[in-house]
Amino acid sequence: MSTGKIAITLLLPLQLWGENFSQIARQITNSLQYKLQKEQIELYRQRLKEVESKKWGRLEGEYRAVRLFQTPILKFETQAPVGVVNGKIIYTPVQTQVEMGKKELFTGIIRYSYPLFTGFALSNSIKKSQLELIRERLKLSNLKRQLLLKAGELYSSIYRIKAEIWALEKAKKALASARSQARSLFREGLIDRASLDGVTAKYYQITASIKGKKAEKRALLNLLSYLLNRQITEIGGVEIKRVTFHPNFQNRPDVKIVKEELKIADTQIKLAKSNYYPQIGLEIGLKREGENLWLTKNSYQNLDHSYVAVAIKYPLWTGGGRKAQLEEAKVGKIARLLFYRDYLKKVETDYNNTHAQLEALYAQLRAVKAEIRARKSYYRTIWGKFREGLSDSSDLNGAIAQLAEARAKLEGLKAQIFFLTLKLKLDGGEPINGNF
Q1: Over the stretch 253-271, which tens digit does the pLDDT of each residue have?
Q2: For the residues of 356-415, what is the DSSP string, one character each?
Q3: Is 335 helix (H, G, I), strand (E, B) or coil?
Q4: Distance CA 72, CA 101 (A)
Q5: CATH label of the domain that carries residue 36
Q6: Tell me, what's the pLDDT at 151?
Q7: Does the model's pTM come out above 0.85?
Q8: CB-CB contact of 142 with 299 (8 Å)
């Protein structure tokens, strides 16, 4: 193989095929974790409906059949005259029993109850459930952000390893050519046996490294497949370009979640305050009591027992429980407010640190590109000397390894830049247009 052909073999760009990150990102909602959170939203939606239903009151029917062990009777005592003594009438007590009903008693009632006033507990319970539903929807958005970050991290790691495999395979091809050339030189007596064995050992060493990297790549592809809930066999490449970031941390779903928690804490205080108000309820009942299943006969009472009732309930003393509940709610809001402030600072600090890492990677990228140019020139020089017998195999092995390492380093930096760019977009609360 000529010098030019060997250089082309080693220096060709990384051949890319497979699914790119834009395709993967569009499928992120296929994740089982995402689907699970969607079901959680449905759970809170039904919970809201349950709470809202209370504002319409409650209509229920009841039918009861009772058989008594004894016939109900009414006992009363009267004074009956029994004689006259000295002009006075003598009375004696007489016990009298009167049947007051049958052993069988049937009752039917349709009642409607309505909470006239709950101390604002009902309205705040509805508000709390609404906020909890909003929070769960935000959790879904935040989960999508986290899944995209995890997918991006796996994608960049796979690409980095893919680049390392590519560089090692190019080095392996170059070493195969170098080993063939070394055999020819050895037969001609231009190099010793140790030089030939050195090239051969390096060839098998790189072969083993390739197998190890491929196993690592398969493991990461399996993790990505698990994350997306579908098989991913290969990925594409990465594109990096300088972008201007416009962070707005208030747009981040996780920050919005913390803000919703503050609102929920506020409703919790209002719910605790509702215990200081009386509860007033209205109940209207259509009721009949009879001696038969059809409620058409009652020999002792009127059939119709319909009614309208108003009830007022107020806790006169709770042993300090109401006050403790209110104070607990207030402390909870203060704690969430402090957490919100701390969380914002942490988000901003992490963002700034990531941005600094990205700038450092771009500086390293420029340095590695310059290193590759130098490694190319050095490789060509050493290869020419090796063909003429002016350089031994260790020099050639070193040149090949250094160039392959530099190319892998370049692609590894590109992978890191790709991931950090994605991370800054997502962590900055910026919209993702789907093109990566």
Answers
A1: 999 999 999 999 999 999 9
A2: HHHHHHHHHHHHHHHHHHHHHHHHHHHHHHHHTTSS-HHHHHHHHHHHHHHHHHHHHHHH
A3: helix
A4: 5
A5: 1.20.1600.10
A6: 97
A7: no
A8: no
Hey, what are 332's tokens? 């909870």
Range of the structural domain that residue 51 is part of: 3-58+119-278+321-427
Beta-ladder partners of 117: 280
In a domain, 135, yes or no: yes
Q: How many residues does the chain have?
A: 436
137 has pLDDT over 60:
yes
- Whether the Cβ atoms of residue 305 and residue 210 lie closer than 8 Å to each other: no
pLDDT digits (tens, 9 = 90+) for 224-235: 999 999 999 999
Assess whether 89 and 183 both reside in one domain: no
Specify whether 49 is located in the same domain as 81. no
Q: Are 119 and 275 in contact (CB under 8 A)?
A: yes
How many distinct structural domains can be found in the chain?
2
- Do 92 and 173 belong to one domain? no
Position 259 in a domain: yes
279/300 Cα distance (integer angstroms): 37
* Six-digit token string for 100: 């007051």
Chain centroid to CA 100: 67
| Residue with more model confidence, 315 or 386 | 315
Q: Tell me how crowded residue 426 is: count the other CB atoms within 10 A of its CB.
A: 19
Residues 6+ apart with CB under 8 A from 64: 106, 107, 108
Measure Cα distances from 302 to 98, 103, 287, 290 in Å.
18, 17, 11, 8
Tell me, what DSSP letter sits at residue 214?
H
Report the C-alpha gap between 258 and 338 in whole angstroms: 11
Whose tokens are 């009830």? That residue is 311
